[in-house]
Write a structure and sequence with these properties.
Length: about 350
């Protein structure tokens, strides 16, 4: 008796009504030509054909996938088989690979238990993709997408609201569109769920380096609970248009265009004109862009933190962006900045 397993069925991509009708017409005309694949009586491949054959009382054949040794290996087989479908959306491929991760972790633990012993135990079976390059790149390759696209999909399926996950899964939203809808960009002055705040340790280091934070020109009331700037401008007040006139500025600008370019020009021009005396600016390390180069030519030193900063959402939960960051310092107190920020990563003086 061929049985349907609910977990395995969850791996399947549903046929469109027209596709299913074409399949049914083919089975009516020619019968079920290809055998259904099973393991221990559980159907692994051919769910649509089985439903049609049973409903129309058409005979079908099954063939057992002999090399599968346990249920987890069966799940990996189904996943690989599904990812081989030509019409499968990229988001679905990514989701299947993410499921593979959990399965492979279970398999790894079981294999560790069955090592050969000795002073340096050797696993009897090779772990899937173990040690082959960076893990994210390996998984992205398996899904057939870029590493950045895979990372966005991973965040969506782990952290986004169910309705956004469903829309991405069904192709109603692209991976990029779903990511933007779920998380926005790491912006210090947006509202609602898209509001992301700088980690407090970086703000306090900036405060110590400059002696104070007089102004945050791209902020919000909520963000300023952490920054504690003497003055701040919200999105509605538009810090690009207001006079800054400050001794010390902390700026974590919107990371989307054109805002990031506009704030980069604004802070560079304000320092050059003497409108501000000092500034600490936190941005993505987009060293190839004109706006980053514009600030770098005016700044005194730049810190490139190790890893990626854990920005905080409005609830205080951390979330990492998709690339590294840079902290630029404008002003005369370079030694104080180096002292405060060298613990986060390497600091480079800028030759003038």
């Amino acid at each position: 008796m061929t049985t349907i397993d609910a977990e395995i069925s969850g791996y399947l991509w549903p046929l469109e009504p027209a596709e299913k009708q074409l399949l049914e017409n083919s089975i009516r005309r020619d019968g079920c030509l290809d055998p259904l694949r099973v393991w221990n009586g559980i159907l692994l491949d051919g769910h649509h054909r089985l439903e049609i054959c049973r409903r129309l009382q058409i005979p079908y054949r099954t063939v057992s996938v002999e090399h599968i040794q346990n249920r987890d290996e069966a799940l990996l087989w189904v996943s690989a088989n599904q990812r081989g479908r030509r019409n499968l959306p990229d988001a679905r491929r990514c989701e299947l690979v993410l499921r593979d991760q959990a399965v492979e972790q279970r398999l790894a633990k079981e294999r560790q238990k069955t090592s050969t012993g000795g002073s340096k135990p050797q696993l009897r079976a090779k772990l899937p993709e173990a040690g082959k390059g960076r893990a994210r790149d390996v998984l992205a390759s398996r899904a057939g997408v870029s590493s950045r696209t895979f990372e966005k999909a991973a965040r969506i399926f782990k952290m986004a609201k169910p309705e956004i996950q469903h829309a991405v899964r069904r192709g109603e939203l692209s991976i990029d569109g779903g990511y933007k809808k779920a998380f926005g960009t790491h912006v210090s002055h947006n509202s609602g769920e898209n509001q992301w705040h700088t980690p407090p340790e970086f703000i306090e280091a900036a405060r110590r380096a400059m002696g104070s934070i007089d102004l945050d020109p791209a902020s919000s009331a909520k963000a300023n609970e952490i920054v504690k700037a003497t003055r701040f401008f919200t999105a509605e007040q538009d810090g690009l248009k207001n006079k800054w006139d400050a001794d010390s500025v902390f700026l974590n600008p919107p990371y989307s265009q054109p805002a990031v370019s506009q704030f980069a020009e604004r802070v560079a021009a304000a320092f050059e004109s003497g409108e501000i005396k000092q500034a600490v600016v936190l941005v993505n390390n987009c060293t190839e862009t004109w706006w980053f180069q514009r600030m770098a030519h005016v700044a005194s030193v730049i810190c490139f933190p190790r890893g990626r900063l854990k920005f905080l959402d409005v609830h205080g939960h951390p979330g990492a962006p998709l690339q590294g960051q840079a902290v630029l310092y404008f002003g005369e107190h370079t030694e104080k900045f180096i002292h405060e920020f060298s613990g986060f990563g390497f600091v480079a003086r800028i030759a003038k």
